[in-house]
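This part of the workshop introduces the protein records we will be handling. The question running through the whole workshop is how a given chain folds. To make this concrete, we reproduce a full record directly below:
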Amino acid sequence: MDIAMVSKLEKAKRYAEERERVHVTNLTVSFDGDNGTHQVSFDGKKWHCDCRFFGSRDWCCHTVAIAKILDKMVPVSEPMPS
């Protein structure tokens, strides 16, 4: 491995540790929930999920879980008090 490649790999490792550098603008994932697979997406501003719960509340366990996995790279859609 040449010195340029080693340098790039070291830089990649540092970038991966500095998660605040990453800002997700669009994302679509399949989420295997307890009751089936759901399509979860983030459009840069708002979360979406095809589960029934999300349809009535604009958040669900699937969107919150993905946001927590992506820790600070996307906003968390937390439950709002009624």
About this structure: The chain has one domain: 23-82. The chain has three helices and three strands.
